[in-house]
Amino acid sequence: MKRLYDYLFLKLYELMKKTPGKRTADDAALWLLVIALFFYSAPFLLFLVDYSFGKLEFWIWVVIVLLYGYVLYKINSRYFIDKGELALIADRHKNESSMSSTMGFIAAVTFELFSFIAFFLFLSFF
Question: How buried is 80 (Cβ within 10 angstroms: 0-12 exposed, 13-18 middle, 19+ buried)?
Answer without folding.
Answer: buried
